[in-house]
Predict the structure.
Amino acid sequence: MGAGILLIVGAAVLPLFFALTAHAEYLQYTVVRMMILGLYAMSFDLLFGFTGIFSFGHAAAFGASAYASAILFTRFKIADPILVIAGGLVFAVIISAIVGYLSSRVGNVAVFLVTFASTEVMQLIAFSNPWNLTNGENGISGIQRMAILGLAPIKAELNFYYFTLIVLALSYFILRKIVSSPLGDVFQGIKGNAERVRFLGYNVEQCKVASFSISGLFAGLAGSLNALHEGTVAPEVLSWFFSGDAVLFTVLGGPGTLLGPILGASIIVLVQEILSDIFREWLVFVGISYVILILFLPKGLFPIFSEIGKKNIPVGSSKVSK
Amino acid sequence: MQILNGLTIGSIFILLSSGLTIVFGLQGVVNCAHGAFYMIGAYLAVKLMPLLHNYWLILAIAFCCTFGLGWLMERLGIRFLVRSKREGTHVLVLTLGLAILLRELVKIGWGAVPQLAEAPAILQGILSWGPITYPKYWLFVMGFTAAIMGILAFFFQRTGLGTLVQSITMNNEVSQSLGTNAPKINTLVFGLGTGIAGIAGVLSGPILGVDPNMTFDLLIILFVVIIFGGLGSLLGVVISGLIVGLVISFGTALITGMVAKILVFVVMIAILLVRPLGLFGKTGILD
């Protein structure tokens, strides 16, 4: 918990330093991307790091919510961002619950295939442009950032920055509460030994669906935010490659730590920003980091950071490093 | 005509999925990098053809190269993960990372522009029989696939090594305690699987084209094939490969390719839910 508060405070004061540079808006934009993708990765961590489900279709919830929000705004002319996001979340949870239901009925390796295939189906549907809703491969553009509750317009990058930060912080505390609740214990029990959890009288299938739905809710939140932030939604948000990103961020940062995936997402966004201009095949580094991490650092980078943190700062939490 | 197209595409599916399925049956490893070996095989054919002009030699070289790479991958990566008793998902992540890495390296080395490989001179041209005309090369692909599957079946049924592989598939611990060097055989079979993928790459180059994205293009279809056929079953792969090939070929002709693909995925999920063993699966490996 301590490390989380530290990170949030750090992110809150960061724009003050950005204001000193000539590229304040660009830097804010980049950090907002880190936060959105961090939220996406953190929601995956609940599924992968805590419940031990290797879903390869996490993009489904993100994309479903992004598309639903975009359609609500452009087709149904709903201009309240809270309603637009809420609509996206409802859709994301429904989709995640369905995928979770299907996945909970099959074995461990087959979950990978079921989630993979489900997302692929959704992407094909988005491509095929049903009722002219999804606009095929071009995707939906022209989503504008609207005023929240008529108060602060999130149009300006700085306002969006703090809006995203608040959402991310709330999500983090809620997820932290969930994983330390009895339900969270059951999730971790399923990861450890699903048979024993079943013998204790828990309905493992229902718990898996719950894990999928909760994780889908937060992934959906990231998806809606992303739609508002970028102003466009393209079918790429439903690609399996984007699902793979969730895995990469989590494995890089450290599964089962919640904060680790945010760190992982931030590092990859940073690497992408720096490298993609000078080196077109920067994905080589993604491949290499997958291989090196899984072979030599299966716990990810975050435990290293929190160990250092423990020595220097007394608030470094023992719970995070687990 | 659609039938012949379906059978030719199905042949390539069969070749690719046979490697995937024997590795899965043996070690329970889903190799996401399988398509990378397929791509490497195809690129070797494109790049070596102007130098060597010998199709058969290239087939042999492609097999050896992809066999060697697969051998290395198992020996240095997967065996390490299995030895240190990691979760199955770690192996998936490793193979996925290698797939991305190999694809990007090929992009850097050989460029990302899609190409079409050239069929060997003897096999160019069209064969006509009554009202049906068909490219010779496509028929050759079918025949060659049949030959390789025959060799594989002979290997597993009739040779001593093949019998050992089967014994490990059935019960790893017992066969090891009886003196089988299981890790060595695992590595060998893994290489065999990736080697066949390399051959499939050489064969499919003139039909489906060659580009770095082939690493992942067919992967999900291959999963459908091996699940439909029953994991670890060679006979299942042959039959389901042909069925999936025909379904996609007819689906693309009659309805749009998009709908055909959606149907294939929905069928796959349904099979996993209703009959996880597929058509010819014997044991519940997936559980």
User: Anything to note?
Assistant: The two ends of chain B are 40 Å apart (CA to CA).
